[in-house]
Hints:
The structure holds two protein chains of two kinds. By secondary structure, chain A is mainly α. Among the domains of chain A are: 256 residues, no CATH class; 50 residues, no CATH class; 79 residues, no CATH class; 197 residues, no CATH class. Chain A contains 38 helices and four strands. Chain B is mostly helical. Chain B has one domain. Helices cover 76% and strands 1% of the residues of chain B. Chain B has a two-stranded antiparallel sheet. In chain B, strand 1 and strand 2 form a beta hairpin. In chain B, helix 14 packs antiparallel against helix 19. Chain B starts with a helix and ends with a helix. The chains are: A mainly alpha, B mainly alpha. At the A-B interface, strand 1, helix 6, helix 7, helix 26 and helix 27 of A face helix 7, helix 9, helix 10, helix 13 and helix 18 of B.
Amino acid sequence: MEPVHLLIAIIIVAFAASPLPLLLQRCGRGYAALAAALVMAACLTVLAPLVAPVMGGTTLLASFAWLPDWGLALSFRLDGLSLMFSLLILGIGLLVTLYAYYYLPKHDTLGRFYTLLLLFMAAMLGVVLSENLLLLVVFWEITSLSSFLLISYKRESHESRLAARIAFAVTGGGGLALFAGVLLLGHIAGSFELTQVLAAGEHIRNHDLYAPMLILVLLGAFTKSAQFPFHFWLPQAMAAPTPVSAYLHSATMVKAGVFLLARLHPALAGSELWFWVVSGTGAITLVYAAYIAFYRYDFKGLLAYSTISHLGLITLLFGLDTRLSAVAGVFHIINHAIFKASLFMAAGIVDHECGTRDMRRVNGLFKFMPVTATLAIVAAGSMAGVPLLNGFLSKEMFFAETVGHPVFDEMRWLLPAFATLAGILAVGYSARFIHDVFFNGEPIDLPRQPHEPPRWMRAPVEVLVVLCLLVGIFPQWSIAPILHVAASAVLQQELPAFHLAVWHGFNAPFLMSLVALGGGITLYALRHPLYAFYERLPSVHASIVFERFHNGLAGFSAALVNRLDNASLQRYLALFFTFVLALGGWAWFSAPASPLPVVTQPADAASIVALLMLALAAAGVVVLHRQRLAAIVFASVIGLIVALTFVRFSAPDLALTQLAVEVVSIVLLLLALHYLPPASPAEDSMQRIMRDAALASAAGVGLGAAAYAMLTSPFETISNFYLAQSVPGGGGSNAVNVILVDFRGFDTLGEITVLAMVGLAAHALLDKLILQAPTHDADGRLWARERHPLFLQMLMRPLLPLALMVSVFIFLRGHNLPGGGFVAGLVTGVALILQYLASGIGFAAARLPQRLPLFLAAGLAAAAGIGALSWLFGFPFLTTAHGHITLPLIGEIELASALVFDLGVYLVVVSVVLMVLAELGKLSLYHEEKT
Amino acid sequence: MSFLSTLFPAYAEIFLLVMVSAILIVDLFLTNPNKTVTYALVQLTLLGCSMITVSTHQHGVVYLFHNMFVDDLMSDVLKMLSYLSVSMMLVYSRNYLMVRGLFTGEFMALTLFALLGMMVMISASHFLTLYLGLELLSLSLYAMVALQRDSAIATEAAMKYFILGALASGLLLYGMSMFYGATGTLEVAAVSDAITHGVPNKALLVFGLVFVVSGLAFKLGAVPFHMWVPDVYHGAPTAMTMLIGTAPKLAAFAFVMRILVEGLQPLMVHWSGMLVILAVLSIAVGNITAIAQTNLKRMLAYSTISHMGFLLLGVLSGGIDGYGAAMFYAAVYVLMSLGGFGMIMLLSREGFEADTLNDYKGLNQRSPWLAFVMLLLMFSMAGVPPMVGFYAKFSVLSAVVNAGHIPLAVIAVLFSLIGAFYYLRIVKLMYFDAPESHVPISIQPDSGLLISMNGLAVLALGIMPGTFMSVCAVAVQQSLLLH
């Protein structure tokens, strides 16, 4: 197999095999652990053949197109840095697997634990092996996710659930910031492939977007690596089982942030901004966390803060941005991973054996577990920077870099002093860890009797401590080769000359180390007054801050919901109109100037009076809308004036129709009104009425203005076309009617269909409905006993034939003069309504056809049928044919096939009116029978 | 007949119309209360539609009915997704509705009419056709929300939806009429040409744009025209909520594309500014208000609002990138919503809606598999990789960045972070809290299988998003008349 394929095989094996422990846990917890170990070993085996070429200085690249259009490729990279990290991840992973088997309680079947651990490991390998930055972000988020699940492994504990949420919120959020930053970086560099990005450093640093991009990327790195002020999630995350703390929260995951700094070093470092932000954050974190660590009495918390402090140290090294400082940073990543993982495991053993982590109670354990104690003391010594241990070497390099850093020319003592202070604190908390836990008198009231752990539980610690010593004593022989390739992968150029040795002579760094050791021990000696002082300081607990932020956000959200979404339609409508008005106003003021308006007709006095009446009547409807009768009267005034307006502008057809419609609808409304209370209750507050009035006026003015602007802009009218085509095309000189039944016959067909549906709906809704009609009016007076005055009956009966004749007349002349099927139908309807009103439903129903829906169907069928007929002659639907006949008395009639269509319209209109009327009438019939 | 054969691009719509009329009549004569035959007919109709759409696909853009109707790759893809979505919705909701006595012929007929409306919207290339499709869809939906007549909350929701929806339709129509006044045409392509060549009355264009965009924003449910969304999502029976929350968003996307991108491309400087405001407000308000919700349907409503904001971000970025991303986003959103609402219906039973957050407490103990599927869906909605929701956000954001709207991308990411919060809360409830109810969960085999496939699809598409993303990009590229 090609080496590059092996690279992808690692990731695939790691992900695909992660469910194995879950599947094997049925066979026993040992199998789950074995499966996890085997998967890690398999990954190591796959990696093995690739080690040699990478150590020789080549960078292996493997790439598969995934989303080429979006710049996302499945491309992986193995260089020195990735190799170093992969070895750390897999090596410490193996040790943690062994350790966890003994650490976790016996009743735990471990399947879920190891699966999550493998998932994390796979994602972490993905992060360090990604060549594509977007791919890196994807894996990055999976590490946050699996960390979330691992921290909350002890589900029943509230503390671990809260910790898991805080950790995910911070690191997941940082991941999103990183995502945005990487999008920008790809945008700047023109590619998401690391090779291109790393080569474009000069271009990136000079780009306008460099600063925002850098801040976003650093947010991602700092949250993951728990840098101040995002450090608070890490101590919380100590709620996780100790193997998880050892693996994720000291050795690997938290290193992803500094890994990113190392990875992107050639592309991003080298600017003022980088120096100040990265080294500033690193320095603050270094000292602040070390200071806090010194005061922890929970030894796992102490280790957590020390981890933060060491991560700050690494960040500071990358920020200092001399080439040698980057080498030191890489070196310290390895050293810290080794000694801190062993310390966590040792701490876990102590916790496991004693049942508590409180250093005020856990004392004098050296007597009970001498081997573990010795191991922990060596590892802690490395943490403190004691010579002959690996921590000492990288700390020396760090001290050397602070001495004579070029930036602080005026105050060149500042940086070394700061570094020494951090060193003193580190020695202090290491001394506290060693002395408090293993010496310092007798244990106080421990839940369990401590003793040495099982042989194999201690083995991982032993391995790591041996590594501490090996690196510390023989650096040139043990660690130098991998450090060389890793550091050159970071710098992407020739490494500066450096020499790893225990003894560099009596120089400034060594002096600083001595001061740190001495100072640290002095600090520890003075601890009691310092603790007392610390206790008096106000303490800020991160989880409280987080909860407060959480609650604040929820409160803000609830407030916003109350404002916007209170389930009130009135509120919604008010908001709706406000925004439409705002947008309309914006358009009004931003719109370009209109061309010259067209000349408008002068207004005559009659029109103005009519308009004023229209406005008054409209206002009347609004003001009196609760008194239903009065509102209807005003509404009919509006209808009347509209009809008059049609007359004024020479549209007799429309006026006729409008009048007839007015009559029919008022009568039907009155019939319905009989069953409703005469007035509706007032529910709105004055404030709301004022608000609505203001909104309505503004909307009205706006709409009026828009209509005015529209009507006064020049336009071309299409009326001339219809006037010219009416006689030759439709055989009628009444253009309105010809449009209705011919030019736009399809429209009319649709309209009468709707009308027919309305009739049917009224039939369906009102049929068999029983309503209690009121016997009194609002003032308590009885309705008249005599419902059908004789006078009215006598007057109406002779009117019927006359009205029918008028409607036939209007129908027939319709094609040439004002009239037509629709108006004729309405006139017939009015005539029949009058009979109902005058003589009562019983009289009318007995004399009218019972099966009105049939008439409805017939009307529709006639209209549609005559339209379809034209298909037979090869014309499109609803084509008209026309000719002339002469009838006595009436004269010449233009007989068009549209006449049949019009007849259909007529039938539909009449039957709908009658159906609604009959149904409403039946309601009253019910009462007539009862009384 | 040669006339009929020229109609081939619209065969799917014609077939659907014929079938829905037939189903309406056939259903009258069926007495089985389970409506098995009607249901089978409806599913067969959907299958038939998809076969027709596939077989009538033509390379390039085909116009019909005097340029009122267009058939292109984008419309075909969107229609296929709509069929799938409606079909899935019917599977999910069958049992839910049957228990509540709502699984009636009217329900299915209205569903199909709504689908017809969507198809018309998707294939419209004329303002009137667009409007007709929209109204057919909206009217069907109003009626469906009100279908549960004995539920006060559903009736109230229907009333609000109708009143506000009618107002929005009015605005839209008003805006369209202004474009007609300014350009003298209603054909999408012709409007674009006319504006490019200059119209005498520019003020009319700006006014028309304001009203059209407001109407569109309402239909999408973008802030500040979003008020109906939570009430309707919450009030309607979950099956109807699912219908409203899924396929119509594809149609709405097509609607935005046809009007703003194809018709009003020359005015992009104006409308993209308006979309920026709508998108930012939607993402901000949607994500923040979702936190305070205790009802899952309401929470998903606010999440929809923020998702629509993201969709608008894609549109306003412009270019094949942006439109392709928006289309992908819409499709992914539909897939996730189907799963989310499907889960609510799956867990509900007679007299129990499973729509409050507390109903999800301890789901992991009651049904680990369903909890896992829900976890996939929630993570996908939150945009956590490797779920497909991440790639949807990613494609939109990369389009936004490439269009140079850096602050927009940052704002969107920030609010997505807040958004992740409430999805995560569901996961927390399912996995960490103790269940409040111990009623065994009974699942119909068909919907149980579907929800599993739905959840796994979210994961599988997340692992292999490439094909589908390029389908969207190619569809947009082949279909748009970009000048």
